[in-house]
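Design review, sub-item: ligand-bound model
Attendees: FS, YL, KQ
YL presented the inputs for the 2-acetamido-2-deoxy-beta-D-glucopyranose complex:
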Amino acid sequence: MTMRLSLLLAATCAFLVKTSLAVFADEAWTKDYHYALLGEPSDAALFHQPNPSSRASLIYTVSEEGVLGAVNPRDGSLVWRQILHSGDPHGKTAGFLRAGEGQDVVVSGLGSQVAAWSAADGRQAWHVELGSPLADVEILDWVDAAGTPGPKDALAITTGNKAAVSRLDGATGSTKWQYELDTTDEPYQVSISATQVYAILLHKTMMGYIKLKVISLDPVSGHKTDEYILSSENELSTADTIISVGANSASPIIAWTDSAYSVLKINVIGTKTVSTFNIEKHDEHAVTSIKLHAPYHVNSLSHFLVQYNTDVSHRAEVFHVDPKKGKVEKAYSLPNVAGMGSFSTSTADANVYFTRITRDQVMTVSSVSHGVLGRWTVDSFNVAADKDERVEPVRSVSEVSIKGDSVSAVRSAVLLSTGDWILLRDGTPVWQRPEMLASALSAGFAAPMEAEMLVHELEEEAHSSPLQAYIHRITRHVQDLQRLPTILPTLPQRIVAGFLGTSADGVMANDGFGFHQVIACATKNGRLVALDAGNPSKIMWNHPVADLKTGQEWQPSISSPKGGVLELKSKAGAGVQYNATTGEQLVSILPIDVEADTAAKPVKYSVSGNGLEAQMDGNPAWSFMSAQGERIVSLVPRPVNDPVASIGKVLGDRRVLYKYLDPNLALVATVKDASKTATFYVINSVTGGVLHSSTHARVDLSASISAMVSENWFAYSFTAEASDEGPKGHQLVVGELFESLVPNDRGPLAATANYSSLETTTEPFTLTQSYQIPEPISKMAVTRTRQGITSRQLLAILPDSNAVVGLPYTVLDPRRPVNRDPTKDELAEGLVRYAPVIEFNPQWYLNHQREVTGIKEIVTSPALIESTSLIFAYGLDVFGTRVSPSFSFDVLGGDFNKFQMLGTVAALAVATFVVAPLVARKQVNTRWQFL
Ligand SMILES: *[C@@H]1O[C@H](CO)[C@@H](O)[C@H](O)[C@H]1NC(C)=O
Ligand SMILES: *[C@@H]1O[C@H](CO)[C@@H](O)[C@H](O)[C@H]1NC(C)=O
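KQ shared the predicted structure:
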């Protein structure tokens, strides 16, 4: 009998033991998400085989964000990427990307730097700094007379004060020759024929027109062999109407048009004849832009395609060059099709193919004749977009497979008007990359309305008397009952989901944890894009919200005034509200006025030189003047929604240290270039009063300075230069403000029970502590929870290691005892002995092993459950996760096994059932024994 009992117990224990082994470790890769992005691909994108012996190719691009990368065309995964630094603060210079046929390297050019990279893994082979901005980079795509094997040489043309054409050795990047250009002409591009190198320059005439100057150079010696000016008869008034050309060709060409787009002029470089073609009008819509598509290989046929776009349609014409006569002839036209379209050029041996992508079709033709070699229907691009929006292809690159006389397959990587980069295989979308998120300028969270309503109800219960709360709760459950008919059919799935412990990852409508919040990002191209933080694998919606002209910038900011609503503000003022779930516009106070963004308008604060002015309701409230020679580098206010659970800190001996809580705290960082000092002021942003300040000497002002304020504490970091006292080091300073440093004493504030922040004159007592950290922090943020009970974590972006860390407050606490061990009371509070160096614990890395690159900002939002804060970081990559700084005290872990728990309960029930009669009999027996 006892054996049966112990067997049962053993079985029960076995059930229980297994569950307690892992503590949330399994959540590491499920609760966080990461998009490794490149940015919207520019015209510089191509298919290329990284390994000449294999036919598998990758897609290479230099994006608008200056990121060079390779993507696998099978699944859209990133193979490698490198961030190119343009040296241009506005990042407006376009990047160049070239790959020689059969080469295992790709060559990039951005800013003034040319570099070569291993096509397979992105390792840098060499890089050259040319000291002047690049106008063009090409590859000398033919084997020279000596037949030198190895990587082909590159040609670069630079503008500015070091204008020159340089031939760079393909293996080392060293300059083989350099031809200096006269700086009165503007270098435009470099072209290569089978025998010559041509520098094309823009020559300004006395009348202000542009003429094209061509200088031909010997490719071996770099000596000038000829120079002439093309007669362009006063039609070129700006360089904008020059149509870029395919530079590597048996007979390279240059084409231009007049500002009215009425004639197309084409010159075969090296000849002086200019062929003129009238641009016909097809309907009442005028041509608004012209694009030229030509092959990039010297041994390809000299055929090219000219694309004419109007506001409503597009068409194309294909031209052939007779290399012997230097003559250009029109071969055939491709019909006018409504909407935008994109063309791409592919080559196979000498043959040239053009692939056209329209809203609903992919079609490939040979450059020789207009016969269609392959045609596929596109049902949908399969991306999130506005419901009345027509998603259109913007630009594309294609790879065609030729079988006999027809195209058996075509793969095209297409940038869409939504900012998605997708791959179409024979017209069917295979993958999409949300590259528009790489240019997110602002992001914000919005809780779905359902969740917000629940919070409101719960708060009401918390604030009323127990009886009222009880009645309220009953009413709430009765109301829930009314939803029963809609819930009942979904019940089986819910029960199954409940068993499998997947309910936390369910849908937005019944998200009891508040993990399913909407994250909206306003992107550089004027769109608002939303993700579900609980299910981020898909874009929820994507809307055009600002009509930006080419090159126009805007400064959006996103907030959530109430549950289920997102508000987008442009710097101009009034906001526009959107339904967070659907993205529908709710009330438009004013359309988003991007024009006003360009003229800087004072928002709440305005920084001018060394002064800071605050305005409330448009009237100046106060101004803060820092000392002479100081300039303000950052101003961080306390977060608007920063709940504080307790006004005091409970010490180990149960006494209380009162926090200095002021909703208007702000931290201002100023630097003085002359003395290399940085000063940090904690101010009251309503009165402008300085509550605390500290100055640091020998600060490296070129390194980043970051700062953060929350509750009654602040943190900032900077890099100190090496000195006699210490080596170069990154510093993190943490300060905490108290009403008084005497426990149980409220200091001077005690007398004024209801003080107004405008009137207080009392100053807080500030404790600060500084720490050495292993690397610089570019930006800080703080976790937020619903009630503020959970301890906070300082979130820091580490640009040097492409990481985001969450530092627990106990590590930062300025009250850590210095030069002694903590007392028993301090230990009870969680204080540990001060150490001057904080090493980042591997467990603090929120990104785990992933590289989160280019992160510029972090936003946080409280979940519905108190323990958890949602985090979203953006910049180039997009990374999100949720953290529980005080552990998940209010939620069962993902490894909690309901089956085992129920199994255990069942086993215990059986045990009780079996054992109870035995126990009863035993009790009876014992009683009988006593009698
Ligand atoms: C947002 O749209 C959903 C679905 O149409 C609707 O149920 C919800 O009430 C809307 N929210 C607001 C704030 O209008
Ligand atoms: C607090 O404010 C109320 C209303 O303004 C005032 O009547 C009261 O006297 C104030 N209490 C103190 C201690 O100042």
